[in-house]
Design brief:
Layout lengths: L9 E2 L5 E2 L6 H16 L7 E10 L15 E9 L6 H14 L3 E4 L2 H5 L4 E5 L6 E10 L4 E9 L6 H17 L1
Antiparallel strand pairs: 1-2, 3-4, 4-8, 5-6, 6-7, 7-8
Helix pairs in contact: 1-2
Length: 177
């Protein structure tokens, strides 16, 4: 089960609220990586992270009149390997708990989703609107073995050239006033 969600607020690594659309791909990737490590670093047993991405996803599906339709998002996806398949459920639950301790909120999932043999959770950060998923993929239903995966998708940001053009345009407008 995969969702692509667009959100447009940002927050820099110091935790200060930034203007919408000012994050770049490198900053989005670094923040997504930090969110993954918030979930994984204290896991037991400790999995090996097999990273896929960053993949630039775009254009964003969220639109507003003040932003370009060419905005992008970054997605990081990890398989948690090196642990028995029977631990996959436990790893997804540990990710959920670690993210809840960070103050992140549920986007969707319910007790039925979390109590079954193959739980999944969808959450988001506030106020910077990164979206995370923890999913248990089925490897062997009869044995209850799965594969845990984590995914983080950034909020929307402008491509590098458009961000520069947008800032130059804003500066020129400010000077002409």
């Amino acid at each position: 089960m995969t969702f692509t969600v667009a959100a447009c607020g940002t927050q820099d690594d110091d935790g200060e609220k930034a203007k919408q659309g000012t994050r770049n791909e490198q900053q989005a990737t670094a923040r997504a990586e930090a969110i993954i490590h918030q979930a994984v670093d204290a896991m037991s047993p400790q999995p090996t992270l097999e990273r896929f991405g960053p993949a630039t996803v775009g254009p964003c599906i969220a639109r507003d009149d003040s932003r370009s339709d060419d905005r992008l998002q970054v997605t990081l996806f990890y398989k948690l390997t090196g642990v028995p398949g029977s631990e996959a459920k436990n790893l997804v639950l540990q990710a959920r708990d670690a993210w809840l301790k960070q103050g992140y909120t549920y986007n969707s999932s319910d007790e039925e989703d979390m109590s079954g043999p193959f739980p999944w959770v969808s959450m988001r950060t506030e106020p910077d609107d990164f979206w995370m998923e923890g999913i248990t993929g089925v490897l062997d239903r009869a044995k209850g073995e799965g594969l845990a995966t984590l995914k983080v998708t950034s909020p929307c940001f402008l491509p590098p050239d458009e961000g520069k053009a947008s800032r130059a345009s804003s500066s020129a407008t400010s000077r002409s006033r």
